[in-house]
Amino acid sequence: MADTETTTADSATSTPTTLEEATETAKSFLAQAQEAIGDAVDATVTAVKEHPIAAAGIAAGVAAAVGGAAYAATQLGGDKEPAPKAKK
Question: Where is this region: Disordered (predicted)?
Fold first, then answer.
């Protein structure tokens, strides 16, 4: 396993000289990213199954934060001064 880490570190620091090398390096990084994302998704699913009430609370908090941020963004874009009142 140490050989794999050394090879990965060496390839990350060296600059690819050809298009083929660059393509292979990009594919390698993509494969690593996909594996990491898959592991994160699996861990999240496991955590939600083990603690559904906490997960629901977190989801509600995130929804409230996003809703509050969206509301604030709409208010910041409006006029700063109130509209003048119409004379009768």
Answer: 1-24
